[in-house]
Amino acid sequence: MPNWKPSICDLPSHTALQSHAISLSVLTFDLPPLEYTVDIEVSLMDSSFLEPIKEYFKNLNLPFSTNISNVEMTVSNINITTVCLPSGENNSCCSCENGYAWPSAVCSDLITCPSVSVAPDLPCGYMKEMPFYGPYCEPQTEDSCGMGEVIVMSMSVRLDTNFSDALGNSSSDLYKKYKSDLEKAFNASYRCLPGFVSATVTGFRPGSVFVNYEVKAGPASFDQIANSNKIVPQFLDALYLLNQATFTTEITNQTNFTVSPVDIFEGDTVTLICEINSPSENVTWYHSDKIISPSFWYPMERRVSQRTSKSILKIKNITMENSGSYRCTFTNSNQFHTLIYKATKTIAVSPLYITPNLHDMDVTCNSPEIQTNSPLLSCCIDRHLPSLTADWKVNGVINITGVSSFSGNCTEYRLNINESLCPPEKAGTVTTYTCELKTEHGARNSQNFRVTYLRRAHITISSSINSSVSEGGTFNVTCESDVSNHDNITWKIQSGNNTKTVDWDMYTKNSTSVLSVKTATQDWSGTYICTFSQKYLESSANVTIKVISLPLNQNILIDPIAASIQCKVQQALECCISANSMEDYTVKFMVQQKEFQADKEVSCSDSLGIGREGDTLIKPCYEPSDPHGFTRGNKTFKCSNKSWKNESNDCLSVPVNNLLTSAESLVNSPEARAKLPKYLEELKEKTGKEQSILNSSANLGAIVTILHMVSSIPADAEEHIIQNFLSTVNFIVADSTTKVWEELNQEETLKSSLLLSSVENFSLNLQPVNNTIPPVSANTLQLQGIVVTENSTTDYNKTFRSTENLTVNVLIGETAIQDLTQGSTIVSVMYSKLGHILPHNGPEYVNGLLITTVTSKKIQNFSISMTFAKKNSSLTMPQCVFWNVTLDKNRGGWDPQGCTPTEVENNVICSCNHLTAFSILMSPDKSSQVIFEDYITYIGLAISILSLVACIIIESLVWKYVTNNTTSYMRHVCIFNIATSLLIADMWFIVTASINDQNQQMSRGICFVATFFIHLFYLCAFFWMLSLGLILFYRLVFILHNTSKTAQKAVAFCLGYGCPFVIAVITIAVTLPRNNYTRRGVCWLNWNDSKALLAFVIPALIIVAMNLFITAVVIIKILRPAVGDRSNRQERNSLFQIGKSVAILTPLLGLTWGIGFATVIKDSHRAFHILFALLNALQVSYTYVWFCFLYAI
Fold first, then answer.
1. Of 8, 337, 407, 1036, which has the fewest Cβ atoms less than 10 A away?
2. Residue of 1050, 982, 988, 1047 whose CA lies nearest to 1187
3. 907 to 599, 872, 902, 998: CA distances (angstroms)
4. Which of 1153-1158's residues contact partners 24+ apart within 8 Å by CB, and which partners?
5. Where is the SEA domain (predicted)?
6. For position 114, what pLDDT does the model report?
C-alpha cells in the first residue's frame, strides 16, 4: 500500500502575511508490487493552523483508499518530517521532527537560526533560502547528519576581565561560578552543531582571562562553528565581557595525514600529504616545531576545493637529519573565530643498510677448481623491498665480468673466470666490483668487493756455476718467475734434514731475485729452494750447489813469511792449515826471490833462521807447543849484534783470534741475522772478561774490525742486542786503552774512524720491533731513536747526559720528519769517550760530547740542531764540526762544512744541513798570548791610517798647484782615491781585528758587512792603481788623441769603484746563502770552503801584472821616444811622475799581496805571516809619505 510522508518545509513569503507550508509525503498508486513515497508541501498562511494540522494528520484513520484519475490508490502512512518558519526576508528556519534528521549531504551547510531556543529538548532550526526545494529531513539512520563519530574540539575564548588567582583553583567558588555560567552558555550555543554532545570548561589561564573548553560534537564546518560562537553572548551575562574576536578552535583528529613510502631510506624522495574536509588556503608545515619554507629540497603543492583542502610536501634526497616529527596546520579565521586543523607524524629515516658480507676475495685464475666452480659475490639488505633494483660495475686492470641475479633480499653476481683474461704480468692486481642497490623512491647504497686475481707462478732457477764451487769462491743463484707481482721471496738451503732460511741481502727486481754469495763456506752447500709467495700461493724451484772444502787464506800458515837463506843450503819452508778437514790437498810453493850480493857474512844464525846484520825476519804467530795452533798476525825480528831481536809482535790472542774467525764465518753465513744476537753476547762477555787482551794494539784493532764486520748485518732493535754491541764499544774505549789508541791512530787505516763508522752502520741497520727502538745506555754510550709512523706530528727531540754530567740535545723539526717515509728510523748515539780518541790537528780540542744521528732513508734539505754543553768553559772560538771520513786520504778528519755555531753562555748550538757524527772543537783562550804579528798589524795600521789622513790633507792643500794640466790632474785624482779607499779599508780592518782578538762575540751580520767593505775598498785601491797605469799608457801610446778631462774622470770612476762593487756583490751573493762567505772566527773572505778569497786575489794579481807591463812600456817610451812624440816639458814631467808612481806602487802592493796569498796555504811558514803583516801595515805609510812630500810639494 502506498505510504504518505508529509514533510513540513519552508515556504517563501511573498506577501506581508505569514505563510506556512506543510509538505505531505503520500504513497499512492496501488500498482503492486510498486510503492511510492511522495513529498507533499503544505503551505499555511497562518502559523496558528500548524498544530491543528499536525493533530489532524495524526488522527487520520489509515490506511484509506481513494480514486484519482481513475487510479485506485491506498495511503498507508502520513508523517510530518520538516517544519519551516519564516525568518527574515527570503529565509526560513527549518527543523526536523522527532525521529527525522537532515541527510549527511547537507550536514556541513546547516547554519543555526539566529533565534535559538535555550531549551535542550526543542529541535534546532537551520537557515534555508526560499524557495526551498529540499532535500528534506529523512528518517534518522546511522548515516544521518550528526550520527557519525564524535570529535573533541579544543577551544578557547578571552574574557576581558582581570585574572584572579581563584580561577586557578578548581575548588573555589569563583571558579565554580565561572565554570557553571560559561558551560550553560556554551551548551546553549553549540547544541545545534551536528552531533553535539557537550561543552565542558577545562580551565582558566591568565592574560586577562582565557577560558579553555572542549566541545564534543560531530564534524562541523568553519561557518557552523563561527555561527555558534556568535550566539554565545546571547546566553552569557554581559559582566563577563566576552571578547567575540578571540574564539579559537583546534581540531587534531580530523586531518588525513599520509606518508609515502612507508619504509624511508636515506636518499629517498618522501611525500607527505595532509587533507581536511574543509576549504583552507593557509597551510603551514613544521619539522620539530620549525617552519619549513618551500625550496628545491622541500617543494610544496596545495589543492583547495569547495569542501576539501589538501597540502603536499615533498622531501628530496632525505637524510638522517630529516628524521623527526612533522606537523601540518590548516588555519581558517575571520573576525569572530580562528579554526586550526593539526596533524602530526613522526618519520624515521634509516640508511639503506647492506648487511656485512665477504668484501675481499682472492681468486686463482689458472686453478681448475676455480674455473669449474666460479666465485659468487652477493649483496644483501636487511629487509624485503619488492621495488629494489641492483647494478654491478667492474673496475680494474683485469676485466672479468659476471652474471647478476636476485635471490630474496640479495643480488648475486657470479664471475666468469677465464685464464686468458688474467695474464701473468697482471697477476696480483685488484679488481673492484661495485654493487649498487636502489629503491624506487631514489635511495641508494653501494658496496665494494675487492677481488685479487692471483696466478700460480712458473719458477725457473739457475746458477752462475755448474754445480760446485770452492770454499771462498763467489757465485750467484738467479730465480725468475713469470708472475711479476709477488708479496715475498724467500730462499732456503736444505742440507740433509737441516733447512736454513737465508736472511741475506738479495737483489730483487720485478720477477727476478738474485742471491749473491761473496765468500762461499760449507754453510752454503746444499739444495737452494727459491719460493715466490703471493697471498696464499707459493711457487718454488730448486738447484743443488756443492761447496768444496778448501782452506781460506787466513787459515793457511806460511813459515817463514820473509827470510834470508843461504845458497846451496837446504831450507825448510812450512805450509800448514788450520781446518777440521780430512781432505787431501795439492800444495804448490811459489817463492818471490830477491837476489843480493853476499858481501857480508851471516851474522845471525839460530833456530829462527839466518841473516846478515840489519836483516829482517818475519815469522808467523805459531808455537808448536801451543794446543790452539797458530793465530793471525806475525812477529818481526831484526838481526842486531849477531842475534835476532823481537822488533814487533802483532799476534792476536787466542780468544780474539777465535772471535775474528767466528765473525768472518758469521758475516758469510746464510743465517747471519739469526746468529747475530748470540755472537754479540759472546763478543761482549769475552771482551769484558779479558781486559788484558785490550792492551795489545793488534787485539784492539781486531775487535774494531769485528765490530765493523757485524755492523753490516741488520739487527732487531731489541734491548739486549743493542746493549751487547754498545757495551763492547764501551770496553774498547775505556781510559785504560788510551795509549793503545795512540798507536792505532798511527796506522794507515784509522781504527778510531772505523769504529765510529761501525756504530753508525749498526744504528742505520737496526730493524724496529713493534714500531719502537728502545733507549739503551752502556756507560760511555747512549742510544735513542724513533720510528716514523703515519701519525708522526712532533719534532725529534732527544737529550743525552753523560756520567760526567755533560749534555747534548738533538732536535729535528717536524717538517723534516714528515719528508721521511713511513717506517723510517732516526737513531742517535752519544759518545763521551770516542770523541777524544779521534785525532785532531792544531790547538783545537773536542770540548763536548760526540753525537751521531742517522736516518734509514736519505732526504734532501735536511736540517738538524744540536746543543752541546761545554766541557771546558775556558776554551774559546767554538767550531761545529763533523767527522768527514773522506779527508786526509780517507783516514778521516774534523770538517766544519755545512754547520753554523751559536755560542750561548756555556752551550754551543750547532745548526747543520746534513747528518753524521758531530761535536764541537774549541781553542785555548789566546787573550794573554798576543803574538808578534798582531803587534805589527796594530802599530803598522795605526801609522798607515795617520799617514793616509796626512796625505789626504796635503793633497787638499796643494791641489790647485799640482793639477795644472789634464795628465797631472788625473794622476792626483787617482792618488787621492787610492788613499781614501785604503783609509776606509784599514779602518774596518783594525776595528774587526781588535774586536776578534778581545774575544768579543760579533753578530754574523756585522762580520758580513765588515768583510764586504774591506773586500770592496781594497779592490778599489787596486783598480784605482790600474786607472793610474792606464792613464799613463794612454798618454804615451795615443799621443795625438786627446780626451776631455770629464770623459777620463768618468772612465776612471767606473773602473775604480764600479768594477770592485760588482765583484764584491757577486762574491757575497754566491757564497752567503751557503754560509761560507767569511772565515771561521775571522772577518775576511773564506778560503777553505768556498775559495771566496780568489775574488780578491785574482783581480789584484791581474792588475799587478798589467801595471808591470805598463811600467815596462813607460820606461821604454821615456828612454827611446818615437819621432812623433812631441809632448811639452810639463806633460812629459807629469808622465814621468805617473810612471814612477806605478813603478813604485805596483811591486810594493803586488809583493805584499803575493806574500799574503802564501799565508792561506795550509801549514805555511810563520815567516810568511810576519812578512805579510809587516808589508801590509807599513806599505801605505811609506808609499804615501813618499808621494806626498816628493811630488805633491
1. 407
2. 982
3. 68, 11, 8, 20
4. 1153/1097, 1153/1100, 1153/1101, 1153/1104, 1154/1101, 1154/1104, 1157/1097, 1157/1101
5. 147-271
6. 72
